[in-house]
């Protein structure tokens, strides 16, 4: 009985962890792009 529960729960837990990691990576990449855009905007303002 317990073997089936383990076999079913491990892939679900792994999928949840992978999903959270992808979500965090996407958020970090979006924030990184926003920071770079702010820097480029500041540089263009200085050059003006």
The helix content is: over 70%
What is the tally of beta strands? 0
Could you say which overall geometry the principal axes of the C-alpha atoms support? rod-shaped
The helix tally amounts to 1
> Main β-sheet, in a few words?
none
Distance between the termini: 71 Å
What is the CA-based Rg, rounded?
Answer: 21 Å
Which regions contain 5 or more consecutive residues with pLDDT less than 50?
none
Tell me the fraction of residues in β-strands, as a range: under 5%
The mean pLDDT is 78
Which structural class is indicated by helix and strand composition? mainly alpha
Give the helices and strands as they follow along the chain.
Answer: H
């Amino acid at each position: 009985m317990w073997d089936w529960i383990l076999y079913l729960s491990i892939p679900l837990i792994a999928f949840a962890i992978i999903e959270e990691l992808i979500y965090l990576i996407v958020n970090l990449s979006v924030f990184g792009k926003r920071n770079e855009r702010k820097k480029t905007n500041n540089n263009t303002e200085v050059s003006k």
